[in-house]
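Progress narrative, Year 2. Work on Thioesterase domain-containing protein from Polycladomyces abyssicola advanced from sequence curation to structure prediction during this period.
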Amino acid sequence: MWDEIREVLVNGSEEEKELFRLTLQAIRQKRERQSAYPSGFMGLSGRFVSPGVYEFRVSVTPYLLNRGGVVHGGMTALLADSTMGSLINRSLPDDQFAVTSEMKIHYLSPGRGKELISRATLLDLRHPFAVASCTITDERERKVAYATGTFFIGTRR
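Result:
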């Protein structure tokens, strides 16, 4: 395995080297923030942009692309789910958590460009469920996807 890693680092394409960088980023985020590995690969770091609205900005990297050179639909869904889930989890008391119980996504245009901006809005928060919506655009404000999600709220033991 180490010989293979060394070979890619020495002779690999820039895309392959970028994937190594993203792997290290994912490991670092997991260790520092207990993030899920896919969140680390995407470099997710969010913020509230206004009350009840949470945002992620994600650089479009080779990790996100499908064979057609556009953002993979599964990565777009992961981004929407992560943004809505982060919004809800950050809106709950420390002894509660939320997990996705249902999500619907509408793909509106191919994900292209340098950055995706994902904004989630809280629609309803009543134990044991929360509902949110999410709009994903590119850096030119072109709509890429719209999603809604229902989240189950649990209590930590």
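The beta strands are 46-50, 53-59, 96-107, 115-126, 129-138, 143-155. The helical segments are 2-11, 14-33, 37-42, 73-91.
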